[in-house]
Each structure stands twice: as C-alpha cells, then as structure tokens.
Amino acid sequence: MADKAQLQEAIKTQGEVVRKLKSEKASKEQIDEEVAKLLQLKAQLGGDEGKHVFVLKTAKGTRDYNPKQMAIREKVFSIIISCFKRHGAETIDTPVFELKETLTGKYGEDSKLIYDLKDQGGELLSLRYDLTVPFARYLALNKITNIKRYHIAKVYRRDNPAMTRGRYREFYQCDFDIAGQYDAMIPDAECLKIVYEILNELDLGDFRIKVNDRRILDGMFAVCGVPDEKFRTICSTVDKLDKMAWEDVKKEMVNEKGLSEDVADRIGEYVSMQGGQDLAERLLQDPKLSQNKQAFAGLTDMKLLFSYLELFQVTDKVVFDLSLARGLDYYTGVIYEAILSQTIPASVSTPAEQNGADEAGVSVGSVAGGGRYDGLVGMFDPKGRKVPCVGVSIGIERIFSIMEQKAETSSEKVRTTETQVLVASAQKNLLEERLKLTSQLWNAGIKAEVLYKKNPKLLSQLQHCEETGIPLVAILGEQELKDGVVKLRNVASREEVDVPRADLVDEIKKRTL
Amino acid sequence: MQLKAQLGGDEGKHVFVLKTAKGTRDYNPKQMAIREKVFSIIISCFKRHGAETIDTPVFELKETLTGKYGEDSKLIYDLKDQGGELLSLRYDLTVPFARYLALNKITNIKRYHIAKVYRRDNPAMTRGRYREFYQCDFDIAGQYDAMIPDAECLKIVYEILNELDLGDFRIKVNDRRILDGMFAVCGVPDEKFRTICSTVDKLDKMAWEDVKKEMVNEKGLSEDVADRIGEYVSMQGGQDLAERLLQDPKLSQNKQAFAGLTDMKLLFSYLELFQVTDKTSSEKVRTTETQVLVASAQKNLLEERLKLTSQLWNAGIKAEVLYKKNPKLLSQLQHCEETGIPLVAILGEQELKDGVVKLRNVASREEVDVPRADLVDEIKKRTL
C-alpha cells in the first residue's frame, strides 16, 4: 500500500497526464482511461487504514427510496397486484440485463438510450429498456403460446438530462399482458376492465380511458388520401393533438409533412370525433370508411369491444377517440390510454413519457397505456410462430409521485413500520421483563418493539411511539408484575387500562387492525 | 451469431439468439409463487420486529464500490463508459447501505433490504453459481446498550428458519474479539491473525488434521501454537462455555477476549429471554390465486358468463372466464385442474331461469345449486 505522500505525488502526475491528453485533443478512449486511473488513485488516498472515502451521491438519474417512499410504494403495488390476481394472472421475473442483440433491433433510434455493460471479455450485455421485449423473448424461449402475466420491475434508459429534466433513468414499469389466440376482443376487454379497477381503487379521482384501433387509423388515413409511405409520420403528428391545438397540428401536416390542405381537413373532421359504441356504428355507416377493409375490421371489433365493456360495466369512463394514436410501432389492433381528469401541475417531477410501453404521445395526466401487438413474439421465434398479445402498462412512477404529493399535503402521517405495541417500563432494572414480554408478543404474531436500552426514560419511550406512529404502549412496573397485569396505554388519547397478562394478546389484536 | 443475425435483417425481421445472459435466469410462475411465499414469511418477520425497508439503485458510481472489495473488484460488473459517470452494478447490499446512511446523515435505523446483486463469477471455478441473485439483508444501525440488538438479530434468524419449515438447524455464534484474544494467547504473531483466521474458518469443510497441516506447513505456525489453537476451537457450548472461558487464566487476562466473553455471556442471557415456538405449514404450489372459474356447458352463454364474472370481480372475488364464446365444459374443468382453481360456477339455460348457479367443487365433483344472490358469500365461505 503506497504511503500518502507517494500517492499524492502519483495523483499530481496522473493529473498532468490527463490535462495534457485533453489539450492535445487525444481520443476519448485514451482520456477516459487516464481519468479512470486518476480517480482510482484519488480513491486510494482516502484508503489508509482501510478508510474509504465515499463520493456521496447516487448515479445521475437514479434515486434511493427512503422508508416513507417504500411504504407508499408497497401500498400501490398491493392494490395493483391484488387486482391482477383477482383476474387470474401469474407473474414472472427476468434478469436485469439481456444479451445486447436481444434488445437492439427492436428499438430503432432509441438504441442510443440503452445502457450497455462494459465488454469484460464475455457476452455483450445491456440493461433492459422495457418489460415487453424480455416478455417476448421469454415466450419464444419457452415456446409458450398462452399466458396471462404481470411483471413489475425496474427498467433503464439513458435519457439525455438536458432534454428531459427530472426524468429518471432507473424507473419502475408495471405491465400486464394476455398472450395467446382467443376469440376476438374478450381479453382486450378484460385489460380495460383491469385498468378501470386499478384506477378506481387507487382513488386518484376521475379518469377517462381513450380507445382507438390501429386499423381504423390506417383506414382513415387511406380514405382521407394520405400516401401509404406517410402513414407513420402523419400518425405521430396526429398523436400531438393531446398537447397541441388542431391548427398547429394541421400546420405541421401541411408545412412539414407535405400533405395537401384538403387531406389535412378531411383528417381533421375524423379526429375530432369521440363517442361510444354509437360512434363505431355511425362510422360503419360512413360509405368511404366502411369500404376500407382495415377500417371495417377495426370498427367491427370496436363495436364488439364496447358490447363486452358494457357487460363489464366500464363504459361510463371509456371513450372511442379517433385522435388517439400513441407510438404505434408494434401495435396491430386496439390501443388505449388512461388519463386522469384532474391534471397535476408540472411541478410534479415525473414526466408522463415514462409511462406506457413507449415514449410517444402520452399526455400530461396519463397513467396507463397499451394495446394489441400481434407481431412481436413472432419476431423472436426462430420459426416466426405468431403469438398474439394484448396488454397494458400502468404508469406507476407517475402514480408514486401523485401519492407522495398527497401524503405530503395530508395531515395523516405515513407510517414506515407496522408495529402495534411498544413494550416499555417507567422503572429501572426491568429490561429482563421487557425482553420476556416482547418475545411472548412476537411468538403470538404481534408486531412489537422494545428500546435497546437497559433503563430508558418513559418519556423517550413514549416519544419513540409518537415519532413512528406506534398506537399502543404496554407498560411494566413492579406493582403490575406482582398483580400479573400490564398497563396498556393508547398513545394518542393517553387512556390507560390494566390488562391481565393472559388477555394482553387478544386486547392488542382487538385495538389494532 | 452476429453475422447470422444480420442475415435475417431483411424486412425488419430480427433473428434473436434465444437465451438469457450467462449466469442469469428467468423465474417462471411456479418459481415466483414459491419466491413470493418465502419473501412473505421473511418480510412478515422483519415487520413484526419493527423494521423499515429501503431501496437503492441497481448501479452505483464505480468509485463507491471499488476500494471496499479488494481482490473481489474483478468480479464487479462495470457499465460501459458511454460518456458520463463511471458506473458499476452493486455487488452486495451492505456498501449501498453504508452509502445511504452517510448520504442522509442517518445515525439510527432498523432496516431490511431484499434485492438482486451482481457478481461476475468465473464459471469454471464456480459451476452453477448465478451471477444475478437475491440478497436479503437485515441490519440495525446505531449506538445502543450492548448486545440487545445483536440478540434481536439472532431471534429474527431463529423465527425465520422456524417459519420456513426447513427442518432442524443450528446458529453458531462467536466473537471477533474472542478469536483475536485466543490467537494472541496461543502465540500467533499479530500479523498472521487474519490469515490464520481464514484457515480456522475452513474447519466447517475440513478435518482438524488438515487445518492444522495448513497452519503449520503453509502459514508458518509452530506445532505447539497450532495444538493450542486446536484445544480452543474444539470447544462448543452455551452460556456455560462463556463462563468457563472467563475462568481460563490466560484468556481472561487478554483484554479483547475478556470483553468478547463478557458480551457473549450477556448475549446468551438475552437469548434465554427470547424463546421461540415452532410453526409448520405445507401447501400445494399454485401460480394464481383464482377462487372460481365461471363456466357453461351450453352454447351462446358468453354474455351471461361475462356478466357473472364481472359481478364477482366487483365483489372482490378472484375469478376467471375462458376467452372462448362456446367452450366445451371439459376444457373448462381441465383448466381448473391444471391451475388449481377449487370451484367452478356453471351457468345453463335452466339455472338462469331459476336464478341459480351450479357451484361445483372441482376436486370432489360435488355440485349444489346456489341462488345468485348468495353466490359471493358461498364462494367466500368455501375458499380462504
């Protein structure tokens, strides 16, 4: 181990090396290599006697979850998972990194946002970018043709921080998908029912679920006169209608994307339409649209979907909206997006774009998105076997944000533990008795704590209860021990009652959930 | 492979190599069900003891992780330098914990953390070892009266192993100070303490003769010293052993050993106050929790099936329905058997007229007609 003076000398020298390379505009690889050496030397400087100097920060775009945030997170997951289970879904988990080649190819220009692992002589690896590609890989690898699964896990995107202020690079996704060949629109309807149930139970206020269909959009573009090769680019312009007014969207179509004003106006007429099953029926009467094969299939299925949604009693919040486009790269049929009616101000940190299966077209207030994607798994299967899929991604980071804000402004405290009772004593030399009672409570399944102090003051024990929200305190004293009772005190009201030892467990259970 | 992949690149069709990265694996639904059960038992125990939980990012700044692990540094997964900070995947949960405490200036916390960690183990040396695997840590940080938190940690291990029903187990305890004191009184030179320690550590895998050989031949101890160590390390016991060693003239004179033995005595006194009761349980492994399948034997009843299923969901019942307009009764029953769904609610024209549902127990095949209004309660009664 080099001594301090030698190290400092080495750091000085290495610093010169780095400065020289930078001024000579040497290659990036060279500079980075020398910088890494410099940092390593600096780290060793604090390394005497094994003392390690920590740089006290998390990586850019990542954050720790403190216990309060974890309590909120646990509550949200519990509600969501409970809904998935009510619908008979299983769950799987996949590794945090995949073979680089599994991930690339699918994301096109987003490839630069993928975190690669360093080539350390083995396979080339990258951190997963979403949960959809791992799902498709899992299905193909295990030759699975039918599964109803949910998957809640973190994904990783190297977003450019200048462009996307406040966006996390490590964030949760919560996906639910039904894979398999089934009779039309029933699984699609169940996905929407699930979104409805989850948003209701999370108590986020009023919401709407917009639905549309890729085939209806494509058919609509065709009858309006959009050239085939412009479908996708016009689609992403239409997608901006949730953020921009029609005039500006039309401007982009005409000026930037080269559509004639006529064509743009025709599109404008359609995309202003919203409704329910009635709109689907009306459009099926539209002579132009109904002649288009794609649109006809999409509208027929939309009608069928609404009939199922009525049986599932969710039509009060579902709207067939022709302006819904989403980033349509792998969607092949129905698409949907759930939006909270009460839009939260921009001060809430997590932008909407991180929610849903893709980046494009998710407006502020969006909390879920998805659709049908029948071609993805076939891309992974060596024989190209198709496994049709429909699914939804719940915008869980956005929901965390909203719940965290709610908790901050609410007077109710978020507890980080579930302890029911603190075992305490006002007198000295009662540690043994406290430990014995605490152990008995644990054995009976009661959530209990005891201070790690031989002779704590009653005040500090009560303070601990108040700080952490423990509702009850079981107080021992010489007299109580003689009488075979425990003083059970309600921390908030300060009401006390003597409870016989034998009845203590039941009494605690009665008074706490 | 890369060349082949390019070949399949026409028309956007991407040929994938269908495998997970070396040393990693998917968890299928059965494995997840087992995992969930294990986590549930463990977390329930942690919560019973008033622990909070935290989570940290999967990667840290490379400099946060290096320096701590010494020679294990080569086992750390680095992220590629893509022009930003140098990052590495966490190797354990302890260093992130220390970083979290320091960053947030926290002096007291009782926390658990269950998450995956990453080690680039050399596959030739460590066959079958995963590179991505779960760690489940529980730690108490803070200045407290001696040995009480230490005792609670052991109580937690005891409770968890009992509840997991893994059979009989033993928890061995010792103390770094007792070990160091013991080496000192046996005559081990100070600078050899750590290396002799790792040799003694092999006693759980090797016989004493071989351990002694290593100490003498490889580590340069004299046979006398090795024999003296041998006498001590063969000792096992409870609080009585700690008391006996406190009477040992040589050991009790050693400051370190004395402190360690005194604390060991105190620890055992607390462990006596913390007794535990046994629990056992065993259950069939299902991957879903569905209580009832809504089915029909006749055709054209999809609407009715969907309506009933929706009513059950609204009442909080875990229900499924096949995605088929006119499924055969046999396939619906088969689905129940394969996935462990205990009940099936069968609809038919006559039942609809009479306002009842045929509720069948899948295992026993017993059926009974239940009025629509009572169905939810009947299902709740028959399933947990």
Q: Label the overall shape of chain B.
A: elongated
The strand order across the widest sheet of chain B is 7-6-8-9-10
The secondary structure category of chain A is alpha+beta
| Gyration radius over CA of chain B | 30 Å
Distance between the termini of chain B: 51 Å
Number of helices of chain B: 16
Kindly name the structural category of chain B.
alpha/beta
Radius of gyration of chain A: 30 Å
| Biggest pleated sheet of chain A | 9 strands, mixed
Percent strand of chain A: 15-25%
Protein name (chain B): histidine--tRNA ligase
Organism (chain B): Cyprinus carpio
InterPro entries (chain B): aa-tRNA-synth_II, aa-tRNA-synth_II/BPL/LPL, Anticodon-bd, Anticodon-bd_dom_sf, HisRS-like_core, HisRS/HisZ, HisRS_anticodon
Keywords (chain B): Aminoacyl-tRNA synthetase, ATP-binding, Ligase, Nucleotide-binding, Protein biosynthesis
Explain what you see.
The complex is a heterodimer of chains A (513) and B (384). Chain A is α+β, with helices and mostly antiparallel strands. Chain A is built from 19 helices and 16 strands. The longest helix of chain A is centred in the first third of the chain and has 20 residues, at 4-23. Chain B is an alpha/beta fold and 384 residues long. A five-stranded mixed sheet of chain B has the order 7-6-8-9-10, sandwiched between helices. A three-stranded mixed sheet of chain B has the order 1-4-5. Chain B is elongated and about 95 Å long. Classes of the chains: A alpha+beta (513), B alpha/beta (384). Chains A and B meet through helix 2, helix 3, strand 1, strand 2 and helix 5 of A and helix 2, strand 1, strand 2, helix 3 and helix 4 of B. Chain B: It comes from Cyprinus carpio. Chain B: InterPro entries: aa-tRNA-synth_II (IPR006195), aa-tRNA-synth_II/BPL/LPL (IPR045864), Anticodon-bd (IPR004154), Anticodon-bd_dom_sf (IPR036621), HisRS-like_core (IPR041715), HisRS/HisZ (IPR004516), HisRS_anticodon (IPR033656). Chain B: Keywords: Aminoacyl-tRNA synthetase, ATP-binding, Ligase, Nucleotide-binding, Protein biosynthesis. Chain B: This is histidine--tRNA ligase.
